[in-house]
Amino acid sequence: MSGSFIQNIGLAILPALLSLLCRTIKIKIVNNVQSSENYVFMFWHGSMLLPWFINRNNNFTAVVSQSKDGEILSRLLKKFNYKLIRGSSSKDSKEVMNDMQNVLMNGSSLAITPDGPRGPIHKMKIGGLIASMRTQVPIVLCGTAYSKKFVLNSWDKFEIPKPFSSASLIFSDKKIIAQGFEKSDYDKINAELETELNKLQQKAEKYL
To answer: ∠ at Cα 38 (37, 40), nearest 5°?
Structure first.
């Protein structure tokens, strides 16, 4: 049996298993700001499973890399009825940014893991902020905590909640970023968003 055949079987089965797993988790959402209005939803790569899950069937587009890991994620997100933008923030930044802006201007929400696809862990890249600012669509940050979990030995310390465990997700308020600042100002704002998202991660632990 060839390695490529086994890999293809894994690609087919794993998204279904992850989808089933998510349905066993007891989820508590704090400060839920979900609404009919679209927004840029940002959460860390290592705890992304349930943030993806809660916005299934909810007019979302996801930014997913072209890597092998991205292929697994894209299949999962298709099960969740996401539209996809495939590309890397480093290799395809201009094209991906144009796609992100078009998605937001056409009324879809956008989901981003701003430290993906390769890290550094919990360090926010600026693409989500720029897309929000240019379209004047608000940003919502999401911290996530799992009561029981497996932690993989990957760059992002990827977390998989254990079946039938609990999770808490805490949302920030919606943030509209004004236009017209200097680049250094946006770098500062991006650093502030990074700090807030890390605080939300810690705060989510208190709601388990």
So the answer is: 140
Query: Distance between CA 90 and CA 187 in Å, rounded?
Result: 17
**pTM for this model (two decimals):** 0.92
CA distance 94 to 131: 11
- At residue 109, does pLDDT exceed 70? yes
Q: What is the pLDDT of residues 118-151, one digit of tens each?
A: 899 999 999 999 999 999 999 999 999 999 999 9
CA distance readout (Å), 177 to 36, 95, 133, 180, 195: 20, 22, 5, 10, 16
Describe the strand order of the beta sheet including 40-42 as a list of residue ranges: 26-30, 166-171, 139-146, 40-42, 109-112, 60-64, 83-86
- The enclosing H or E element of 63 equals strand 60-64
Buried b (16+ CB within 10 A) or exposed e, 155-181: ebebbebeeeebbbbbbbeebebeeee
